[in-house]
Amino acid sequence: MDKNFALFSGSSNPSLAEEMAKFLDVKLGQVELKRFVDGENYVNYSESVRGLDIYIVQSTCNPQNDNIMELLIMIDAAKRAAAERITCVIPYYGYGKQDRKINDREPITAKLVAKLLGSAGAEKVLTMDLHSDQVQGFFDIRSDFLYASGPLMNYFTKKHGNKNLIVVAPDVGASKRARAYAKILGTEIAIIDKRRPRQNQSIVMNLVGDVSGKTALLVDDEINTGGTLVNAAEALLKNGAKEVYAIGSHGVFAGDALEKLEKSPIKEVIVTNSIPMKRKSSKIMVVSVAPLMAEAIKRMHENKSISKMLHQ
Known about the structure:
Elements: E1 5-9, H1 14-24, E2 31-35, E3 41-45, E4 53-57, H2 64-80, E5 85-90, H3 109-120, E6 124-128, E7 142-146, H4 149-160, E8 165-169, H5 175-185, E9 188-198, E10 201-208, E11 215-223, H6 227-238, E12 243-251, H7 257-263, E13 269-272, E14 284-287, H8 290-301, H9 307-310
Parallel strand pairs: 1-4, 4-5, 5-6, 6-7, 8-9, 8-11, 11-12, 12-13, 13-14
Antiparallel strand pairs: 2-3, 9-10
């Protein structure tokens, strides 16, 4: 990379940022990040960013509010230090599920966060596998969107192949994603119809598609509490599936999700390192998206096409 480029990391996912820096053959920029006794965040760049094209890596995962606020302060500090251009690299976009109003007097927080990034001084955003495509339209600044299907499918097919495989959407909302994976793998898809009697609880109602005697691959954008995947896996086995695997772009693993997955009939759960794993699990396999994101950053800096990279 040229001398006008700089890569910095927030505190949410420094290991991913370090890996990306290695692929870009650069050193992570030095920035002081700390929290005062009263809980307020503090940021100070330890080197000059004047006139630089800087990229700030920060997943806005749990604790979402702290990570978002730290990112906003990093943007403001870089802007005030005369950075030429500021790009937010957000492997996991927090609040992405709050993308529409379901009940009266609710916010659309996914759009609010997008507006905050632009208001703070960011000129570009690079993120991966948003919860829904409509969130793409919430950004008023230039935005590029990556998909983890390539790295995830590379891992799965090398280890398990695609013989006698069927891709399964754990709910209707994931059907578009399931079709994309099925197209890559050259397989059929099945869709599980579920309902939610209350928040973070799901009940399987129907299964559309024939999974009898097949290896089922559940695909979703994120794995949160794990309840949807566990219920889906049990339903698939009851309907004759031989075995069940699961893929999620983002491993949120909220609450007792890991315990649920450990006890479930799912053979393996594959996620990316968009969110750092705080606890280990024998069923979880983490696939790195550092090469994908590093290549996208390189192309953005050099004003080259990202879509060509995604369609390779």
